Structure formats: structure tokens, C-alpha cells
């Protein structure tokens, strides 16, 4: 029969970042997720939409790689890559197959420690967000949900629409995204979870150097 998944391992990296791992070699697939405390709670009242913009642009560049090269690399790994942002967290997510594990770790940790957001990507995603805000205003269920949040969480960041207002989004730029990332990319604020056909020692060794 197939080998049962291992129990969850917890390792603390020298920086204080936490690595959680669950090894399962039933299929040659692996996934990794890195999460930082942040999200909408980390925004100021004037920065509505910033977490959403960060999640859309984080993977658009690093110190050494542009957006096209990042996409080429993840496609060559038969993988997927993206960033996410919510009310309480922001982070990166990656999936690939085990033959490309070492390459995946390299790309993952470069995006963790040396993101350089592409200005064209920021402007492109602002346009998409502004269009989404306009279409949401015609959606009764969204409007009801937003009114509920405003009443339920009055005076708290949760009361704001995660997309912000058109005025707020227009005021955001690459500088806003860079400042946000710098403020949350602190290793002691980091938790990484890996699962599947993973070499935990390799991830620990490489991430210990990066974080």
C-alpha cells in the first residue's frame, strides 16, 4: 500500500521564522506557502486596497528577475505561483512537482527576501482593481455584505472594503507596495508550511540562509 503521510514537523529557523512540514510521497507533488502577519489590519485608513494590490504584484519581480522570467521559470517547473492577502495575513503560495524542488526553493526564497515590484505591473493591476470596484457597485449582494461589515466592525480595519475606494486605489503606487512589503517581510513574522513530496532538510538549509 501507499506510505502514510508523516506527522507535521515544526522547525524553528535561526531567524525565528517557523517551518512546518508534512511529508507525503504518495504523489510527486509539493506545495509551499509562506505567510506573514499583515493584511488589511496592517493598512492605514487611507490605504484601502493596498493589501489587494500587494497580492497582485508581489510576484512581478525580484532583484535579479523580471516578471516574464519569473513566469517562464514557474511554467518550466510545471508549477503555479501566486501571492495572497487577507484581513490578517499576506504571503506567497507555490505548487510544483518534486523533480523541480531545488529550483522551486530558489525562486520561492528569492521572492521572499528580495522582491522588487514592477511598476508597470502595479499600474496594470490598479486598472483591474478600479474596474472591479465599478462592477462591484452594481452587485446588490456585495453592497449588502459591505454595509454589514461597516456596521459590524465600525472603527476597525475590517469595516473597509478590501479593494478600497477608487480615490484610495488611484493614490497607491509602487512606493506604497514596496513600503508595505518591507514592513511585513520580517523573519520573526514569518511562517512557512510545506507539504507533499518534500525534502525537509533541504528546505530548512536553504531557507535558513535566505530568511
Describe the model.
This protein is α+β, with helices and mostly antiparallel strands and 211 residues long. The chain contains eight helices and six strands; from the N terminus they run βββααββαααααβα. The chain has helices at 50-57, 67-76, 101-113, 119-136, 140-152, 166-171, 174-184, 200-210; strands spanning 9-12, 18-23, 29-37, 80-85, 89-97, 190-196. Strands 1-2-6-3-5-4 form a six-stranded mixed sheet. The chain is globular and about 50 Å long.
Secondary structure: elements and pairs:
Elements: E1 9-12, E2 18-23, E3 29-37, H1 50-57, H2 67-76, E4 80-85, E5 89-97, H3 101-113, H4 119-136, H5 140-152, H6 166-171, H7 174-184, E6 190-196, H8 200-210
Parallel strand pairs: 2-6
Antiparallel strand pairs: 1-2, 3-5, 3-6, 4-5
Helix pairs in contact: 1-4, 1-7, 3-8
Number of β-strand runs: 6
Total helices: the number is: 8
Mean pLDDT: 91
Structural class assignment: alpha+beta
Shape: globular
Percentage of β-strand residues: 15-25%
Distance between the termini: 38 Å
Give keywords.
globular; 6-stranded mixed β-sheet; alpha+beta
Summarize the structure.
The protein is built from 8 helices and 6 strands; from the N terminus they run E-E-E-H-H-E-E-H-H-H-H-H-E-H. The protein has 211 residues and is an alpha+beta fold.
